[in-house]
Automatic annotation (TrEMBL):
Catalyzes the transfer of a ribosyl phosphate group from 5-phosphoribose 1-diphosphate to orotate, leading to the formation of orotidine monophosphate (OMP). GO terms for molecular function: orotate phosphoribosyltransferase activity. The keyword Transferase applies. The lineage of its organism: Bacteria, Bacillati, Actinomycetota, Actinomycetes, Micromonosporales. It comes from the Bacteria. This is Orotate phosphoribosyltransferase. Residues 58-159 form the Phosphoribosyltransferase domain. It catalyses: orotidine 5'-phosphate + diphosphate = orotate + 5-phospho-alpha-D-ribose 1-diphosphate. Orotate binds at residues 125, 153.
């Protein structure tokens, strides 16, 4: 098995939780994909980085990140996986709101102004979180080349409607789940 198959197994074994839940979008579902159980797992996190780098290998970008908290471990995994190639890749964190103290930055980490960046998320249903990050990145002067997620729960249409390329490593069908 390769990285893609290995990561899918981690997701189905560790992250898919069955039972009634309310998603951040307000929608209800009979299952939840808790990808933090994978993105923060010692053996799965390196796979996350390699799979997402492979998924976006034909896109040119030199920094990766998204809205805290879902994007943070994804970006860190990609940063570390890239360093093993070696590939120069920075990571950043987009705050939900601008800080009122210190440097008052909304995008933390290396400056993204004038840089080609990739917006990431662990999973996305409506695209709201990742599009919030895209807006903040553009305000900070970044050139957002696209959006990539580990698991797509349906956000692709909204992201593409916003004029951005969108890729997901896995669909719900890939994981044996029905929307």
């Amino acid at each position: 098995m390769g990285d893609h198959d290995d990561l899918r197994k981690f997701i189905t074994d560790l992250a898919v939780v069955h039972g009634r839940v309310v998603l951040s979008s307000g929608r209800e579902a009979d299952w939840y994909v808790d990808l933090r159980r994978v993105t923060l797992h010692h053996a799965a996190a390196p796979l996350v980085g390699r799979v997402l780098l492979d998924l976006t290998a034909d896109w040119e970008y030199d920094a990766v990140g998204g809205l805290t908290l879902g994007a943070d471990p994804v970006a860190a995994a990609m940063l570390h996986a890239a360093s093993a190639l070696p590939r120069r890749l920075d990571a950043f964190v987009v705050r939900k709101a601008e800080k009122s103290h210190g440097l008052q930055r909304r995008v933390e980490g290396p400056d993204v102004a004038g840089r080609r960046v990739l917006a990431v998320e662990d999973t996305s249903t409506t695209g709201g979180s990742v599009l919030t990050a895209v807006h903040a990145l553009r305000e900070a002067g970044a050139d957002v080349v696209g959006v990539a997620v580990i698991v797509d729960r349906g956000a692709g249409e909204a992201v593409r409607a916003a004029g951005l390329p969108y890729r997901a490593a896995y669909t719900l069908a890939d994981l044996g789940l029905v929307a």
